[in-house]
Amino acid sequence: PGMTDPRLWLLAERLFITGDLKDFSVIPPPPLIARPKPFPGPILNTVQITEQIPLREALLPPSWWFIPASLPVHRLRYSKALLRAVQHFQQRYSLEPDGVLGKNTLGALNLPVEDHISKIMLNMERWRWLPHQLEGRRILVNIAGFRLVGMNDRQVEITMPVIVGKLGHNTPVFNHVMTYVEVNPYWNIPPSIARNEIIAKVIKNPFYLQEQRIRIFADWQEGAPEVMPESIDWVNIGRGINRFHLRQEPGPGNALGTMKFMFPNNNNVYMHDTPAHSLFRRTQRALSHGCIRLSRPLDLASYILSNDHQMISREQLKAQVASKERKIFVLNQPLPVHLIYRTARVDRDTGNAYFYGDIYGRDARLAEAMFPDQETKCRYSY
């Protein structure tokens, strides 16, 4: 805070219009003089001049495209109030809330209202795809918003950040029911990961499988005999690896962490813990192979099992995790799970609208289907 730029007044005006700056009186108005001139200079942020990006003319109506020639720059400071408003705006647009007026923040500030209306209409259409009666206890994961919510009727009971599939490994949209929770799970390595990643790692490091506690079985049948890694020609195995069942044992470093939450489906997608919890500090979290990684798996397990009338406390769950012994808790009542893709939502408590990046490019395709005769632009993506 404290940096100056004559265009900050226009930024404040826009943030006041969007509702992110609640008290416009904290920004002094520009003096009234006769002769205007175009915006000069770069955009400033809280630390330094970062980019030579002017605020586009779309930021405000044409009447605000010019500033007075003798505007007293010292009165237009990037105040703490304006910084907080920018950060609030960034949070609503799933941007890094750093207060920096970078490329993505400026792009979001310059989005025409028509784009917002189109995005809201697209997401209203997506709601029609869900079951008409959403009631009782259920889990919803908004893929585009990187967030899980546990609800009971209309009440939010638990929420947490999640990691979803990266582009090319898109997390699918579907509805299913969770049937069991597994503590200290095996990781049954998908053939595609074995083929595209594990082979190269074994060739580079012959002890990789041993170090990662990965065992190999002759096939995917129950009771299949174990195969020694040295009996496989890793250099030439290629797609032949598909017939083998590679399984990582429970314990530290297991790719699924300490828990997985199963709703068996043809997509082979489920929710699980992860040893890489530092990734949850990122704002954009499309990072997995398609499964949903949980930031607070113990909390979710406790929530699900306690509401399923399982006779296990949170402390007992922690003890089970610490034992490193695998255990499956079959749910008495299967729990509905909805994996959804929402790039816009309205917070029921505050009335604030939130917009998310179209990480898989689905908004544009849906817009083409919904508005075939209109030039609808869904430009807010990463």
UniProtKB/TrEMBL annotation:
Cited PROSITE patterns: LD_TPASE (PS52029)
InterPro entries with a match to the protein in the record: LD-transpeptidase_YkuD-like, LD_TPept_cat_dom, Lysozyme-like_dom_sf, Peptidoglycan-bd-like, PGBDSf, Transpep_catalytic_dom
Record-annotated active site: 272, 291
Pathway linked to the protein: Cell wall biogenesis; peptidoglycan biosynthesis
Transmembrane segments: none
Keywords: Cell shape, Cell wall biogenesis/degradation, Peptidoglycan synthesis, Transferase
Lineage, top ranks: Bacteria, Pseudomonadati, Thermodesulfobacteriota, Desulfobulbia, Desulfobulbales
Protein name: Putative peptidoglycan binding domain-containing protein
CDD domains according to UniProt: YkuD_like
A Pfam family annotated for this UniProt entry: YkuD
Residues covered by the L,D-TPase catalytic domain: 137-322
Family to which this protein belongs: Belongs to the YkuD family.
Organism listed in the record: Candidatus Electrothrix communis
